[in-house]
Amino acid sequence: LPAHFTLPSGDKIPSVALGVWQAKSNEVGNAVTVALQAGYRHIDGAWIYRNEAEVGKAVQRSGLPREQVWLTSKLWNSFHAPEDVEPALDETLTKLDTEYLDLYLIHWPLARKDGQPYDKELTENPYPTWQKLEEMVAKGKIRNIGVSKLENLFTNPLKIRPAVNQVEINYWFPQPNLLKWAKEHGLLLQAYSPLGGTGKVKDTLTVPEINEIGDELGMTPAQVVTSWHIQRGTNVLPKSVTSSRIIENFQVRALPDELFSKLETAATTHKPYPRFNPSNKGWGLDFDIFE
Ligand code: A2P
Questions:
Q1: Whose CA is nearest to atom 23 of ligand 1?
Q2: How far is the CA of 270 from the centre of ligand 1 (A)?
Q3: Ligand 1 centroid to 3 CA: how many Å?
Q4: What atom of ligand 1 comes closest to residue 22's alpha carbon?
Q5: pLDDT tens-digit profile of 161-196?
Q6: What is the mean pLDDT of the chain?
Q7: Which residues are annotated as a binding site for substrate?
Q8: Is the predicted ipTM greater than 0.95, yes or no?
Q9: Catalytic site includes residue 273
Q10: Which domains can be identified in the chain, with CATH numbers?
Q11: Which pLDDT tens digit goes with each residue over 90-140?
């Protein structure tokens, strides 16, 4: 399997990242340390995860040169107004104790300050936010920019097109059409909740096909799943704060074509799985933020 995917900038983004959403501030440092020792070179974080300072310290402690570790962060909903972008980015850079991010994403396709209704205009067309991000790339504070949903962004005269689109992708929600579209447009998909997300992981890891493939290849169910994601051409971001799982999830290898197809078919033909989040995510939206 490829160790990296290449973005339009030419930068190589490591195929497997440690996800740190819901990693508590007292456990995330250890998780990052274990991951870097196991060979991970990509940490998928965000301002809203409230653990960036701990992530930054663990990266520093590793002694690895900065350019060997890929750091991703995300611009929170409350900072989409152009004047709020650079201060939000600066706060993240300070917390991570770094001069630049390898990748900065618009976290959700939603401009909304806490306690206020959402800003419809900026949500419907986030081009002013995007232009500010383009400016941050020009300033050297960010290397690559992307989104976690595309919305209407592609209709604008973009100087820099999104390098990635980070969305939920897992056995229960494999998004084959979006994946096909992304490949046609040279856009890398990043799979969050790749094991199914909190609460559904057990269901994923007990899927008969996944276990049969694992038994045949001498791999654990989680390794079958992380490998399948990379083989599909998506960047995989498993979250764990458990040392043995962090190490386990990184041991990926190619599935023979026939077994890959068996898993792909199972994932894309099972009955729809109940959705985890309400479509408006409780944010008072009049659109489905996941579609
Ligand atoms: P923990 O962090 O306590 O180790 P996802 O990345 O799909 O959102 O899944 C994250 C969840 O899956 C977390 O609850 C994490 O638990 C758990 N998890 C991560 N890796 C494994 C694994 N290899 N086996 C079982 N559970 C795992």
A1: 245
A2: 22
A3: 21
A4: 2
A5: 999 999 999 999 999 999 999 998 889 999 999 999
A6: 94
A7: 107
A8: yes
A9: no
A10: 4-269 (3.20.20.100)
A11: 999 999 999 999 999 999 999 999 999 999 999 999 999 999 999 999 999
Q: Is the CB of 214 under 6 A from ligand 1?
A: no
Cβ of 37 closer than 6 Å to ligand 1, yes or no, is: no
Q: Which two tokens stand for residue 184?
A: 């046609």
171-179 contact pairs (CB < 8 A, 24+)? 171/196, 171/204, 171/207, 171/210, 171/225, 171/266, 171/267, 172/196, 172/200, 172/203, 172/204, 172/267, 172/270, 172/273, 173/273, 174/264, 174/267, 174/268, 176/268, 179/232, 179/233, 179/234
